[in-house]
Amino acid sequence: MSFVFDSEQVMLRDTVRSFLADKAPMASVRTIMETDAGFDVGLWADLAELGMLGIHIPEQYGGAGFTAQELGLVMEELGRALTPLPFLSSVVLGAGVLLLAGSGEQKSELLPSVANGEARLALAATESDGAWTTEQTTTTAIATADTFVLSGTKSFVVDGHTADRLIVTAREDNGDISMFLVESDRDGVSSERLETLDMTRRLATVSFDDVVVPVGARVGSSGAAAETIERLYDLAVVALAAEQVGGAQACLEAAVEYAKVRHQFGRPIGSFQAVKHKCADMLVQVESAKSAAYHASWAAAHDPQELLVAAPLAKSCCSEAYFNVAADNIQVHGGIGFTWEHDAHLYFKRAKSTQLLFGEPAAWRATLADRIGV
């Protein structure tokens, strides 16, 4: 086990960082987040051309064929730049479901389109209770001779308002919970963008009113949704932890830089013990989060058994570290950090939203305790 990146991984990280600095500076982020779609189509196409949308998709399906470690590096840079893109929803969640449970035909049809940016996927699994599990699924999939008829409403669907295809969890007649591919423009499908705290990542409510899909739209076998979603969320929170590390690192750097240039009483505020200690505490939290995230991405790539422990550990650790560091960044900046014009509050809002996404830290600690038999 090694958390030292090799030269190819370092080059990947530097390439993505340089690309985002050039194509998506914070001024661009602020413009994009005000749009209805919440992302820039041109930037999405450029990222596809760079090969990043297929980073962990096998080469046989048009991807780059890298592992969860390289995916984590891309997520870390996206989090560092706070880039508003449907990367998590399409590349991590959507492609992730297909890689875990999709048929050969479904993978061959959709994964190349995800990798080249032509198709955007979204996972519609959460309902009005906000639970990130399938146990309380009320959306139904009624079987006919050669179709399924879907009815119900999904909440908190990441980028659900702009996805071309939705992967929907629904309860079949026999009570089994399965997954289905549904085109977003199919009759009976409607979406509504939610007003949320974090304007750099969009959530939507998606409704299905007697939506007819062919039998072949089912992803995986009947009743396999719960197991697939559980495995998917382990992989998704590892990717999210990497994003959180990127955001936390950006907050730390911003705080340290401000502490050097902001003067009070004739000296930099970083020379005062209170500010100096706060920055030191931020550094400890960022480095701890990096260790958890890098360990989890290694496990996701190489050791499925270790991932069972590493994923919940990374989610809880990185969620709290990012939130605390983002809050401390505002404190170091003082009054200006609270203003709409300053970037600090955007990172704080992303930190809070990612803390709750896929379940709050306490829920993942309970998962961790259960998995280690405590």
In short:
The protein is α+β, with helices and mostly antiparallel strands and 374 residues long.
What does this structure look like?
With about 375 residues, the protein is α+β, with helices and mostly antiparallel strands. It folds into three domains: about 5-120, Butyryl-Coa Dehydrogenase, subunit A, domain 1 (Orthogonal Bundle); about 120-225, Beta Barrel (Butyryl-CoA Dehydrogenase, subunit A, domain 2); about 225-370, Butyryl-CoA Dehydrogenase, subunit A, domain 3. The chain contains eleven helices and ten strands. The protein has helices spanning about 5-25, 25-30, 40-50, 70-80, 85-100, 105-115, 225-260, 275-300, 305-335, 345-355, 360-370; strands at about 120-125, 140-145, 145-160, 165-170, 175-185, 190-195, 205-215, 220, 265, 265-270. Strands 1, 2, 3, 4, 5, 6, 7 and 8 form an eight-stranded mixed β-sheet that branches. A hairpin with a 4-residue loop joins strand 4 (about 165-170) and strand 5. The mean pLDDT is about 95.
List keywords for this structure.
8-stranded mixed beta sheet; single chain; alpha+beta; globular; Butyryl-CoA Dehydrogenase, subunit A, domain 3; 374 residues; Butyryl-Coa Dehydrogenase, subunit A, domain 1
